[in-house]
UniProtKB/TrEMBL annotation, chain A:
Native species: Thiothrix subterranea
PROSITE patterns per record: 4FE4S_FER_1, 4FE4S_FER_2
Molecular function GO labels: 4 iron, 4 sulfur cluster binding; metal ion binding
Protein name, per record: (Fe-S)-binding protein
UniProtKB keywords: 4Fe-4S, Electron transport, Iron, Iron-sulfur, Metal-binding, Transport
NCBIfam families linked to this entry: DsrK
UniProtKB/TrEMBL annotation, chain B:
Residues covered by the NarG-like domain: 65-214
Protein name, UniProt field: Respiratory nitrate reductase subunit gamma
Gene Ontology terms: biological process: anaerobic electron transport chain
TM ranges: 6-25, 72-90, 110-129, 141-161, 191-209
One Gene Ontology molecular-function label: nitrate reductase activity
Pfam families: Nitrate_red_gam
Domain of life from the UniProt record: Bacteria
């Protein structure tokens, strides 16, 4: 199946920390973006072809580094205060899976820090050897490109660092510098280009979306006998739902979307999706570009205004939720035109949980009795966001919902869940086939924990609330002997158990001919 | 008054200026650098009071480190808490003795041993743990060597060859009142001189080294931010400027 070794699982629930090895994962990194992708994102494009550098690349890279460290306190402080204690060295799933020394969080940061020291600190300028400072060379850039694309920006290391140093912040800065010298990553930049041009990561144009939701309405009606609406671009609805585009067609994502629709149907809350904001994911975060992230976020604001909604709800997606929860108000606010009684924005799980608590949904838990569930806390939800009104709600609410709709639930080992959760291995712009080896190796700790509960507790399925997690798991867990259909959406479970009582959707289908009457 | 006393007097004045000035420059830089996005590592406190409590647990008990690695925590905690006791004991060279200080003297005296023990543990990791060996630069070893040397020379003064601390106190008392290093100057004791030289060196290195982690941790956004982005809008100066001018990219801003 692959020309590299897939790690073996023990079923013990934890992985031995490997001995460090040099350059196991040295390589050229993922495909490099072509000049036209760069242009779409307003990055420099004065290089000949993918893989060549802009003129004066060294000067421009250092200028960008100076600019970023003056713009981000996190970067400046994190570059200065690491004491090399090593607390993070065994915390990265990519290091555990690959044993490559440069995948230890501190070593990954040091790739950038060594150059920072050389050009921006007294000690590095005058005593480079002593403090481990190095010149910026093409080899260093190549290492940046390779190893900063072996980081899913999952922030697990930041939990365990005594100073809270967040490798994601360093990795984002490095990628932004690389984007400014001609080494943009093809996967991320192409996707962001599609968002700007078409509205979503997958490049699904409006007509395709209309087609999809109509098909879904027919499927659900055939399945349940009830016409559940999937409204798109309908003005005046209460809720704008922004969900990852994978929810429109990928498995098991689409079952989640059906779940959201059923919940809206049963609660009687009118809602709509929008072709303007037909994507919740914000890859601007992966490449560290505030401006790109802001541009992507502004679509959500535009859609909310255009469709005259009162609330914004986000679907199941990890990075999307971090950007929505933590940054949307900053990037695209203020949202004073929305109904202030609800959180802005709200997570679909917060929405569903509040209605389950209020008793608005009739649930038949036995519909999920064919499964024993476990739950994967997605990194960016667990370590970069919140749900509900207290710290840690992001751990409880998904579990509350799962327990409310399923009879059998088991958690994976305690040091692999909540804020210590292991990454799926595909986040942060790594969900691309040219990075398959790191994806397969990086999933090892998560696969090990899953193996533990499947062996000891009879777990059959793992629920996830992130589009990237779901895609990565269905593709990569089979390398470890699991099957694709063992991964489910949380709202897929809700969908299974929800008893539809309301025969007619509150939201009548708009006149097909568009006649005024 | 000896030549060595004058030299040391000047050295300590310089070291103090470099330490205070250097740290002030860096702290001002951290203070003035914007934090454009809310990035606390969650679950994070939702109130300012909660953040103070979180920082307290981090700074005093090294909570995250405890979760991370118990052995490392033990050595690090031992070293830092001992260092505090030792520093408190040393304050007798600068202020008049009071009851609290008298009470704490014996703790500070023996904390010298636990301080060196903690440091030796930390240093041993740099050789024994392959991951930590990989990430250690020469300066990481030298820093520990310097601290161990300071600790050992200090312990020698207490337990091996007693130094004339009254004279040392008079010297620093003289410096504090700009009385030109006291009447007698420093005792001509090589261990005292070595100890003081290394301390001055540490003070000089502090602002340009990783020792900046001490003030730096208070500026770490993942730890010091309140988790309230939905409730309260958080916008940095440069981001606000983008909005105000209706621009999308920073390079489009009218300067």
């Amino acid at each position: 199946m692959a020309d590299y070794e897939v790690p073996k699982l023990t079923g013990e629930g934890y992985c031995e920390v490997p001995a460090v090895r040099d350059d196991v994962m040295k390589g050229k990194g993922p495909y490099i973006a072509k000049p036209d992708f760069q242009t779409a994102l307003h990055f420099p494009a004065d290089f000949d072809a993918a893989g060549s550098l802009v003129p004066n690349w060294k000067e421009r890279a250092l200028d960008k580094m100076a600019d970023l460290k003056g713009r981000y306190r996190s970067l400046q402080v994190f570059l200065d205060i690491c004491v090399k204690c090593g607390a993070c060295t065994d915390k990265c799933h990519y290091f555990i899976g690959t044993s490559d020394a440069k995948n230890m969080p501190v070593a990954r940061q040091d790739l950038l820090r060594k150059v920072y020291r050389r050009y921006f600190t007294f000690a590095g300028k005058y005593f480079p050897k002593l403090v481990g400072a190095t010149d910026l060379t093409e080899e260093v850039l190549a290492d940046w490109y390779n190893y900063y694309h072996q980081c899913s920006q999952c922030r697990r290391c930041s939990v365990f660092c005594p100073y809270g140093i967040d490798t994601a912040e360093i990795s984002m800065a490095a990628r932004e510098i690389l984007d400014h010298v001609g080494y943009g990553q093809k996967y991320c930049n192409e996707i962001i280009g599609k968002v700007f041009k078409i509205g979503n990561n997958l490049g699904l144009p409006g007509p395709a979306l209309f087609d999809t939701v109509e098909g879904l309405e027919e499927d659900v009606e055939a399945d349940t006998g009830i016409k559940v609406r999937f409204p798109l671009d309908e003005d005046g609805a209460e809720v704008l739902l922004v969900t990852p585009s994978a929810d429109f067609f990928a498995e098991p994502h689409i079952d989640g979307l059906i779940g959201y629709a059923k919940v809206f149907h049963e609660t009687g809350v009118t809602w709509t999706m929008s072709t303007i904001a037909s994507e919740a994911g914000n890859f601007g975060m992966f490449i560290g570009s505030y401006e790109t992230m802001r541009r992507v976020s502004l679509r959500v604001r535009e859609a909310a205004i255009k469709h005259k909604v009162k609330r914004i709800v986000f679907g199941e997606c990890g990075h999307a939720w971090r950007v929505a929860y933590s940054f949307l108000n900053t990037l695209a606010g203020p949202f004073d035109f929305l109904d202030q009684r609800y959180p802005i924005p709200q997570h679909i799980l917060e929405f569903t949980w509040s209605h389950i608590q209020a008793g608005n949904l009739q649930i038949d838990k036995t519909e999920n009795d064919d499964k024993v569930l476990t739950f994967h806390d997605s990194c960016n939800v667990a370590r970069g966001s919140r749900m509900g009104d207290y710290p840690g709600g992001q751990f409880d609410i998904p579990r509350h919902v799962i327990r409310a709709v399923c009879n059998n639930f088991v958690d994976m080992p305690a040091d692999t869940i909540h804020d210590a959760t292991f990454c799926c291995g595909g986040g942060g712009g790594l969900l691309t086939d040219d990075l398959m080896e790191i994806r397969v190796k990086g999933i090892q700790p998560r696969a090990e924990a899953l193996k533990h509960v499947t062996t000891h507790n009879g777990v059959t399925h793992m629920a996830a609330i992130c589009a990237i997690c779901k895609s990565q798991f269905t593709k990569v867990l089979p390398y470890y002997g699991f099957t694709m259909d063992q991964i489910v959406s949380v709202h897929q479970l809700v969908s299974n158990a929800l008893v539809l009582q309301r025969q007619v959707s509150v939201q009548a289908r708009p006149d097909e001919d568009g006649d005024e009457d | 008054m000896t030549f060595v006393s004058i030299l040391y007097g000047l050295l300590f004045w310089a070291a103090t200026l470099i330490l205070i000035g250097g740290v002030a420059v860096k702290v001002r830089q951290y203070w003035n650098t914007p934090a454009p996005l809310k990035i606390p590592t969650t679950p994070a406190p939702v109130t300012q009071g909660g953040v103070v409590w979180r920082m307290f647990r981090e700074v005093v008990f090294f909570q995250s480190l405890f979760r991370s690695n118990k052995t490392l925590w033990l050595f690090a905690f031992l070293f830092h808490i001992s260092l505090w006791l030792v520093l408190i004991r040393h304050s007798r060279y600068f202020v008049d003795m009071n009851e609290l200080l008298v009470f704490l003297q014996p703790f500070g005296r023996y904390a010298g041993f636990t301080m060196v023990l903690g440091l030796v543990g930390l240093w041993a990791r740099r050789f024994l743990v392959d991951r930590v060996r990989y990430i250690s630069a020469p300066s990481d070893h030298l820093m520990l060597a310097l601290l161990v040397a300071i600790g050992v020379s200090g312990l020698m003064m207490s337990f091996v060859a007693h130094a004339d601390v009254t004279q040392v106190k008079a010297f620093f008392g003289g410096m504090l009142t700009f009385g030109f290093f006291g009447d007698a100057g420093l005792p001509a004791d090589p261990i005292v001189l070595l100890h003081l030289f290394l301390v001055a060196l540490l003070m000089i290195i502090f602002p340009i080294s990783k020792l900046m982690h001490a003030p730096g941790i208070f500026f770490s956004p993942t730890r010091n931010q309140v988790d309230n982005p939905r409730e309260k809008r958080h916008v940095s100066g440069w981001a606000l400027e983008l909005e105000r001018q209706g621009k999308t990219y920073l390079d489009e801003l009218k300067k």
